[in-house]
Amino acid sequence: MRRKGELSPAAIDGWPHQVVLPARLCEGGGYRVIHEFCKDLTLCSRGHAVYEREWFHVYCFSEAAEAEKFKQRFGGETFDPSQQGRGSSWAHWHRRRAP
Protein backbone atom coordinates (compact mmCIF):
# COMPACT_ATOMS: atom_id res chain seq x y z
CA MET A 1 0.00 0.00 0.00
CA ARG A 2 1.34 3.41 -0.86
CA ARG A 3 0.54 6.78 0.59
CA LYS A 4 -1.10 9.67 -1.25
CA GLY A 5 1.46 11.45 -3.43
CA GLU A 6 3.95 8.57 -3.24
CA LEU A 7 5.29 7.15 -6.50
CA SER A 8 3.77 3.87 -7.60
CA PRO A 9 6.02 0.90 -8.44
CA ALA A 10 5.22 1.46 -12.14
CA ALA A 11 6.26 5.11 -11.88
CA ILE A 12 9.53 4.11 -10.21
CA ASP A 13 10.22 1.61 -13.00
CA GLY A 14 9.75 4.46 -15.47
CA TRP A 15 13.00 6.06 -14.31
CA PRO A 16 15.39 5.38 -17.19
CA HIS A 17 18.66 4.64 -15.36
CA GLN A 18 18.59 2.13 -12.53
CA VAL A 19 21.48 0.69 -10.54
CA VAL A 20 21.43 -2.18 -8.04
CA LEU A 21 23.70 -2.48 -5.01
CA PRO A 22 23.88 -5.41 -2.62
CA ALA A 23 21.77 -4.48 0.41
CA ARG A 24 24.70 -5.25 2.74
CA LEU A 25 26.47 -2.14 1.36
CA CYS A 26 23.51 -0.01 2.45
CA GLU A 27 23.48 -1.20 6.07
CA GLY A 28 24.87 0.67 9.04
CA GLY A 29 26.39 3.96 7.92
CA GLY A 30 26.21 2.93 4.25
CA TYR A 31 22.73 4.37 3.84
CA ARG A 32 23.86 7.78 5.06
CA VAL A 33 26.99 7.75 2.86
CA ILE A 34 24.99 6.81 -0.24
CA HIS A 35 22.31 9.44 0.30
CA GLU A 36 24.85 12.13 1.12
CA PHE A 37 26.63 11.32 -2.17
CA CYS A 38 23.30 11.50 -4.04
CA LYS A 39 21.99 14.74 -2.52
CA ASP A 40 22.84 16.74 -5.68
CA LEU A 41 21.96 13.96 -8.13
CA THR A 42 18.63 13.12 -9.77
CA LEU A 43 18.00 10.18 -7.42
CA CYS A 44 14.36 9.09 -7.26
CA SER A 45 12.78 9.83 -3.89
CA ARG A 46 11.67 6.21 -3.63
CA GLY A 47 13.37 2.99 -4.66
CA HIS A 48 12.72 -0.69 -4.16
CA ALA A 49 14.56 -3.94 -3.57
CA VAL A 50 14.96 -7.19 -5.49
CA TYR A 51 16.23 -10.62 -4.50
CA GLU A 52 18.55 -13.00 -6.35
CA ARG A 53 20.51 -15.14 -3.86
CA GLU A 54 20.76 -11.96 -1.74
CA TRP A 55 18.85 -8.69 -1.45
CA PHE A 56 19.71 -5.70 -3.63
CA HIS A 57 18.57 -2.09 -3.37
CA VAL A 58 17.57 -0.38 -6.62
CA TYR A 59 18.56 3.27 -7.06
CA CYS A 60 16.89 5.18 -9.92
CA PHE A 61 18.29 8.23 -11.74
CA SER A 62 16.98 10.38 -14.56
CA GLU A 63 20.45 11.08 -15.99
CA ALA A 64 22.74 8.35 -17.40
CA ALA A 65 25.89 10.22 -16.35
CA GLU A 66 24.70 10.34 -12.74
CA ALA A 67 23.89 6.62 -12.69
CA GLU A 68 27.38 5.95 -14.05
CA LYS A 69 28.93 8.25 -11.43
CA PHE A 70 27.02 6.32 -8.75
CA LYS A 71 28.24 2.96 -10.12
CA GLN A 72 31.84 4.18 -10.20
CA ARG A 73 31.64 5.31 -6.57
CA PHE A 74 29.74 2.35 -5.07
CA GLY A 75 29.98 -0.45 -7.63
CA GLY A 76 26.77 -2.21 -8.47
CA GLU A 77 25.36 -2.86 -11.89
CA THR A 78 22.69 -1.61 -14.23
CA PHE A 79 19.21 -2.93 -13.49
CA ASP A 80 16.58 -3.58 -16.13
CA PRO A 81 13.03 -3.37 -14.66
CA SER A 82 11.83 -6.00 -17.14
CA GLN A 83 13.90 -8.54 -15.16
CA GLN A 84 11.82 -7.97 -12.03
CA GLY A 85 9.23 -10.55 -11.01
CA ARG A 86 5.51 -9.96 -11.27
CA GLY A 87 2.58 -10.66 -8.97
CA SER A 88 3.44 -12.51 -5.77
CA SER A 89 7.11 -12.83 -6.83
CA TRP A 90 7.48 -9.09 -7.56
CA ALA A 91 10.77 -8.89 -5.64
CA HIS A 92 12.47 -11.72 -7.50
CA TRP A 93 15.22 -10.62 -9.89
CA HIS A 94 15.37 -12.75 -13.04
CA ARG A 95 18.87 -11.61 -13.95
CA ARG A 96 20.09 -12.44 -17.43
CA ARG A 97 23.66 -13.66 -17.34
CA ALA A 98 26.11 -12.99 -20.14
CA PRO A 99 27.10 -16.19 -22.01
Describe this entry's structure for a reader:
The structure is a single chain. It contains 3 helices and 4 strands. It is an alpha+beta fold and 99 residues long. The chain has one domain: Alpha-Beta Plaits. It has a 4-stranded antiparallel β-sheet. Strand 2 (48-51) and strand 3 (55-61) form a beta hairpin.
The unreliable regions are none
Query: What is the correct CATH architecture?
Result: 2-Layer Sandwich
Number of domains: 1
- Secondary-structure content class: alpha+beta
Structural topology:
Blueprint: H1 9-13, E1 17-22, H2 30-37, E2 48-51, E3 55-61, H3 64-74, E4 77-78
Antiparallel strand pairs: 1-3, 1-4, 2-3
Concise overview:
This protein is α+β, with helices and mostly antiparallel strands. It is built from 3 helices and 4 strands.
Question: Which terms would index this structure?
Answer:
Alpha-Beta Plaits, 4 strands, four-stranded antiparallel β-sheet, 99 residues
